[in-house]
Design brief:
By secondary structure, the protein is mainly α. The chain has one domain (1-44). The protein is 95% helix and 0% strand. It has 1 helix and no strands. It is rod-shaped, with a radius of gyration of 19 Å.
Length: 44
């Protein structure tokens, strides 16, 4: 049981941080994609 607690404490934090950052990046990428589509429509 102690090994599981140690594993979760060592690996859990980096996983949570990674998921949080991926969520933020996804939202920003969506905004960039929308901007690119809007720009191509304005050029045409």
């Amino acid at each position: 049981m102690d090994q599981w607690i140690k594993l979760v404490s060592e690996v859990g934090f980096p996983i949570i941080v990674t998921l949080y950052l991926l969520h933020r990046i996804e939202a920003k990428l969506e905004a960039v994609i929308q901007s690119i589509h809007g720009l191509s429509e304005k050029v045409n």
